[in-house]
Amino acid sequence: MTSFADVTSVARRHWRDGRGKVLLAISAGWFLSIGVRQAFPVLLPHLQTAYGLTLTTAGLLLTVLWLAYAIGQLPGGVLADRIGEGTTMVVSMAAAAGSVTLIVLGGPTVLLFVATGLFGFSTALFGVVRLSALSDVYPDSVGTAIGVMSAAGDLGNTVLPPVATVLAVGLAWQFGFGFTIALFALVALGIWLAVPRRTSDGTGGTAISLSGALETRSLLWTRSIVLITAIQIVANAVYQAFTGFYPTYLMEVKGFSPTLASGLFALFFAFGIVMKPLGGTAYDRIGARRALFVILGGSGVALVILPFIDGFWPVVGVTALVSVMLGGGAVVLAYMTTAVPNQIQNTGLGTLRTVYMTIGAASPVVFGAVADQGFFDEAFFLLAAISSLALVLLLWLPER
After folding, report:
1. Where are the domains of the chain?
2. CATH topology of domain 4-394
3. Structure pTM?
């Protein structure tokens, strides 16, 4: 049986063999990249007040964030094939620092949307190469390595949103974003020093041309890749809608204070610190189908239960059950990373991530529009119904 002790033992072994500094630097980048993205939901009520946003327009802002993140996946993969994985990650962190600066400067609403889109695109450059770099560095335990790195991301989700909330409540919403600017610069320096400019052999990638695009499409058009991408489309849409509005739901429907709501949101990701390494290790040991069936089924049940419960401790319990969905990311990404042929690894992963994230990015604005019509509770039933589609697709997913 997999335990958290098994995961930490593997992490210590990887550190001792000299690869730990690479895992640490990439994990720090992911900690900051995704942690700041998840600060948007807890700061959303402050942005609604400052800019006069409705739930629908607030959902549109989140859609812009995730759509830009989706669009940037493919350029990130292509760039990594050209200039190297380590260099691309440094560019991502530096550009993120600049876009956060634009958000903090404020201005008209359109500037908020533009700066948010730039931030999503900047962090997208990191999204693909973190996976391919770890696959290069940890070829024999890619699931566990991705799980450990993903857990660092959930640590960022756990720590950074509450810090952002405290700063926004105590000072101003701009401080909720602004404190991360120096952190992005520091992580960029750490990646520059620790991660090789290129982790792959430099022979990957296809030409930027119609023939190159057709070659990439033909290599990706396999049963394994098509099905895992379809499953991830469903899972990603549910994840983006849920995380985008959970703090707002807790405040507007359950009656919790902003601080308590952000704390529960952080708790959701705190559970992910354990779920993601366990999910990655489960992939290595029992395969994707069985792991994903438990993960997607359990989180779907929790989404159905959520509207029916009230009170702090019942909400804590359901939050823990919903957090099972976080373990699915490590499973899907490990499967996807190994399924994509080596000759198009970065470009192929970028293409797939752009596809499933672009489709999934529509979910926050749809969820917000449903909630605006007075159906906040029913929107969670819709997410549960969508989750069931992934369970059906699992029946045809080949094991690797």
Report:
1. 4-394
2. Growth Hormone; Chain: A; (1.20.1250)
3. 0.73
